[in-house]
Automatic annotation (TrEMBL):
Highest taxon of the lineage: Bacteria
Organism from which the protein derives: Larkinella terrae
Record's protein name: Outer membrane beta-barrel protein
InterPro entries: OMP/PagP_B-barrel
Residues making up the signal peptide according to the UniProt record: 1-19
């Protein structure tokens, strides 16, 4: 029985890896981000400012032949800033883009590399409304910009299973190619074949032990940057450190409770020396929704941060503090026996920032983000 199950797994993995880019399959990826900022206060003159922003992209391709993909991609942006008093500035920005492309894939295992190209176009419109306090009238300036250009692209995909894959890619509008930036994201595959469904139906799930009750997790993200420059025999520099150590505990199978401590430190030196410090506390809960190695999760995080500023030789001053909450979701992959790699795909957040000044100005922030280009994190489980 065990030999039969092992044989079924081997057949399934072999067939699935070979069938990832066969005719009849399709690929999806995309991003959606919605943010709303409302700024209000008693100074100046009881102002209110609202700034909604939307960004999206959708990418869809179909394998018309084995290892040959034809696809289209659409993207757009919208930004608007409205002032509900006599501040002389309202802005409106709209952008839309559409492209078509062809790719050729190579490889016969879970790894694939590809190269391709196509043609794309975009249209931008920027509108600025200016208020003249002398005449109490508003004038409008509008700018339209369009662009059409061919492009080339190269990349690679590692298929985690028959549906999900991790993709690295880069595009160039210079032929044959000029490397500029590398992006990482997830792709979702549809169109599974009948032999795959039959083999998977008789295959038991792979259960990882990382998410069992009683286990601890630790993780951290650390980024340090530095810059120095000299202008007219005057030197200046800046250093920054961003870190977020975290620890968690599985109180039940697939249910994690933990806390993260986000820290940011920025130091600028030159004519004057300034230091900015942000310290936060972020308790969270997370529920994993299956017992396979690749499993979705949902969670919630409460965050409190305090921001302070110091300019030498003056004492440090607390500038503001922010409290908020986030509902999130994503995919986790259990690596070996001691690691959990996570990709955060969905965030719904709201926060309130209070300024530490005489007027106690407040800033409300709301946001929604759905993406297949997430930030990836890794936790160690012991």
């Amino acid at each position: 029985m065990k030999k039969a199950a092992a044989l079924a797994i081997c057949l399934y993995l072999t067939h699935a890896s070979l069938a990832q880019t066969e005719v009849g399959r399709a690929l999806w990826s995309g991003n959606l981000q919605v943010n709303t900022t409302q700024l209000a206060g008693d100074y100046p003159n009881g102002y209110t400012r609202r700034s909604p922003q939307v960004n999206f992209s959708v990418n869809h391709g179909v394998f018309l032949a084995n290892n040959w993909l034809m696809g289209i991609s659409a993207n757009g942006s919208y930004y608007k800033q409205v002032n509900f008093n006599e501040i002389p500035l309202n802005q409106n920005y709209v952008r839309g883009g559409l492209s078509a492309y062809v790719r050729k894939y190579w490889g016969a295992t879970n790894w694939r590399i590809y190269a391709g190209g196509g043609i794309g176009g975009s249209l931008d419109q920027y509108r600025l409304e200016v208020y003249d306090s002398g005449t109490s009238m508003r004038s409008e300036n509008k700018t339209n910009t369009f662009q059409i250009a061919p492009f080339t692209q190269i990349g690679g995909v590692y298929f985690l299973d028959s549906h999900w894959g991790l993709e690295l890619s880069t595009n160039s509008t210079v032929f044959p190619f000029t490397f500029s930036s590398l992006t990482a994201g997830l792709v979702y595959m549809t169109g599974r074949t009948r032999p795959e469904r039959e083999i998977q139906a008789g295959t038991p799930p792979t259960v990882g032990s990382q998410a069992r009750a009683g286990r601890f997790t630790v993780g951290a993200s650390v980024v340090f940057t530095g810059r120095t420059e000299e202008i007219s025999h005057r030197s200046s520099g800046a250093q920054s450190l961003m870190a977020a150590p975290a620890v968690g505990f599985f109180v039940a199978n697939n249910f994690l409770v933990g806390i993260s401590v986000p820290i940011t430190w920025i130091n600028n030196s030159g004519v004057s020396k300034t230091t900015e410090t942000t310290l936060g506390f972020a308790p969270y809960v997370r529920a994993y929704l299956s017992n396979t190695r690749l499993r979705p999760y949902v969670g919630a995080t409460f965050t409190y941060t305090s921001y302070s500023f110091r300019q030498s030789p003056y004492p440090s001053e607390q500038v503001n503090h922010t409290a908020g909450g986030t509902l999130n979701g994503g995919l986790a992959y259990l690596l070996g026996k001691n690691f959990i790699a996570e990709a955060n795909l969905l965030n719904l957040n709201v926060s309130k920032q209070t300024q530490n000044n005489l007027w106690k100005n407040g800033l409300w922030l709301q946001g929604l983000q759905v993406t297949t280009s997430p930030a990836f994190t890794v936790q160690y489980v012991f």
